[in-house]
Input
Amino acid sequence: MHERGVRVTPQRAHIWRVLVETGDHFTAEGIRERVGGFLPGLELSTVYRSLEALRAAGLVSESRLPGEPKVFEARPASHPHLVCDGCDRILHPDPEVGRRMMEALDADAGGFVVRELHVMARGICAECAGGGEGAAGSSMA
Output
């Protein structure tokens, strides 16, 4: 956080730790629940301000899937989300897929500069389809 110019507070440090260590997607409320054991009395407004500071520094990304609340994760680069209709897990394809999508947009955007890309695909993961652990080229985040 220091390297990105973010003032380190106990709240930000705990929020960042939860996001990095789990590699998962959390709502602000979910983060407050996780961090609350370490910081009793943590206000939701503090969580949102901390997340905004981390997002502005490029450390956290924010996504909103249709019909769902915002989720936050420690993945600063634009990347697609694969949402399983069976178990509601959010998976990520290989990072190369997101890079290729950005390159394709840049090549055909007619001068429009793409800074961020949100792509969401719905389907069934390999586990729910009965194919075993994880789909080829995917990993749970």
In short: The mean pLDDT is 83.
